[in-house]
Amino acid sequence: MTRWEPGAAERLQEAALELFATRGFEQTTATEIAQSVGLTERTFFRHFSDKREVLFHGQHLLTQAFLAGVENAPPDASPMEIVASALRSATTSFFPDERRHRSRSRQSVIDQNPALQERERHKLASLAAAVAGALRARGVDDLAATLAAESGVTVFRIAFAQWLREDEPRSLADLTAEVLRELLALTRDRA
Amino acid sequence: MTRWEPGAAERLQEAALELFATRGFEQTTATEIAQSVGLTERTFFRHFSDKREVLFHGQHLLTQAFLAGVENAPPDASPMEIVASALRSATTSFFPDERRHRSRSRQSVIDQNPALQERERHKLASLAAAVAGALRARGVDDLAATLAAESGVTVFRIAFAQWLREDEPRSLADLTAEVLRELLALTRDRA
């Protein structure tokens, strides 16, 4: 018999981050994660394909948040204006300041494991490909779409790393806007 | 007794690409690669830590070619001018047109194997980090150095993919210069 477990995915994620941080990612099993919040292994695997995916569960929603920003940009927006809109949409909806502490815990697990770092790079490469696809669907030519999307994801990645620093008070949305301005200044300079 | 094998590394690389292409990467062993050119497994492992590294052997030299370009840029060059110099240096010295066929064979092996794709992403991330470090050593501030280096590697990656297309006649140096111009045009547009 399958009972519905309200908020099971969130409880499992919370517990997993805690165990990964204290025992290490390699040393923690899916069963232990489930048991630590009074759930079964079976419930765990209803929500996640493996323990690694607990850390990458939000990827689909993050991509959706970027794509919503592409969609909401005005019809006459330039490629980089569309990317700016995607960055605003994703950072505001997906990473409010309440989430910073949890994002820090997640990042410190990833920083200690090369395979997880590779998974994270793969996630960001897929995100860039999805944004480039959405730009092309808006009529942006292939090369411009790829460059704008890749640049947007680079800006996001750099701003995100800064957001996670212990002494950083600015919001991710503000940091992203600042890094984007710096990129534009840099490329407007002699080159 | 260890005999010196002239050009052993190159012969092993050549043989490996051939076997990876015909039998598949997973199905080919280091011993088979060595034997196919009349060398021993021991000779193979003197040159490469494993069969995967045959595909990434040139990474160190590629990084050096980028760094030489950073070094050769005039003292008053802007960050993106320095990156343009790094791209010119790497593409001209490291990827003459004679190398295109071999680069295509290598890429088609990588395209068929997700673990090799991750290794390639890791290589490019390390390259960007090395270029950013060299920019900082020239006095470029941290954020500008990271953004300029990441943008340069993005330009390289996109131009490289185009260079490998079957019907592409332009040199990698020309393609890289074109993609860089497109990036600058894109970010000079409204954003």
TrEMBL record, chains A, B:
<dbReference type="InterPro" id="IPR001647">
    <property type="entry name" value="HTH_TetR"/>
</dbReference>
<dbReference type="InterPro" id="IPR009057">
    <property type="entry name" value="Homeodomain-like_sf"/>
</dbReference>
<keyword id="KW-0805">Transcription regulation</keyword>
<dbReference type="InterPro" id="IPR023772">
    <property type="entry name" value="DNA-bd_HTH_TetR-type_CS"/>
</dbReference>
<protein>
    <submittedName>
        <fullName>AcrR family transcriptional regulator</fullName>
    </submittedName>
</protein>
<keyword id="KW-0238">DNA-binding</keyword>
<dbReference type="InterPro" id="IPR050109">
    <property type="entry name" value="HTH-type_TetR-like_transc_reg"/>
</dbReference>
<feature type="DNA-binding region" description="H-T-H motif">
    <location>
        <begin position="29"/>
        <end position="48"/>
    </location>
</feature>
<dbReference type="GO" id="GO:0003700">
    <property type="term" value="F:DNA-binding transcription factor activity"/>
</dbReference>
<keyword id="KW-0804">Transcription</keyword>
<dbReference type="Pfam" id="PF17754">
    <property type="entry name" value="TetR_C_14"/>
</dbReference>
<feature type="domain" description="HTH tetR-type">
    <location>
        <begin position="6"/>
        <end position="66"/>
    </location>
</feature>
<dbReference type="InterPro" id="IPR041347">
    <property type="entry name" value="MftR_C"/>
</dbReference>
<dbReference type="Pfam" id="PF00440">
    <property type="entry name" value="TetR_N"/>
</dbReference>
<dbReference type="GO" id="GO:0000976">
    <property type="term" value="F:transcription cis-regulatory region binding"/>
</dbReference>
